[in-house]
């Protein structure tokens, strides 16, 4: 299906839709972080930020692999490692807090 937006036009395929979906997931993390910070009235990084990062990064990685784009593949793969590592650190911090409280 041809999508014509005036300045740009593209053919919407399943893989293009997957790419857009990944970008939406990835962008949601910033909206979530912004809203959480506004609510707390200070800069905060909610745990859901990292889950959206993984969801968006994994979807975009699949798209990049399909496109056979080594630059995009490298960037998304490296990002996924960082996002998962942050969740591991958060989990360890929570476990340490529970153990300290006992």
How would you describe this structure to a colleague?
The chain has one domain (2-101). Helix 2 (47-67) packs antiparallel against helix 3 (70-101). It is built from three helices and two strands, in the order E-E-H-H-H. The chain is elongated, with a radius of gyration of 18 Å. The chain has helices at 14-40, 47-67, 70-101; strands spanning 2-4, 9-11. It is mainly alpha-helical and 102 residues long. It has a two-stranded antiparallel sheet. The model has no long low-confidence stretch (mean pLDDT 93). Keywords: Membrane, Transmembrane, Transmembrane helix. It holds the Pfam family LAB_N. One of its GO terms (molecular function) is lipid-A-disaccharide synthase activity.
Number of domains: 1
Give the helix level as a range of percent: over 70%
Q: Give start-end ranges of low-pLDDT stretches.
A: none
Quote the distance from N terminus to C terminus: 60 Å
Mean pLDDT: 93
Order of helices and strands: EEHHH
- Measured by DSSP, the beta-strand proportion falls in 5-15%
Question: Which outline best applies?
Answer: elongated
Largest sheet: 2 strands, antiparallel
Total count of strands: 2
How are strands sequenced across the largest beta sheet?
1-2
The structural class is mainly alpha
Question: What's the gyration radius in Å?
Answer: 18 Å
Number of helices: 3
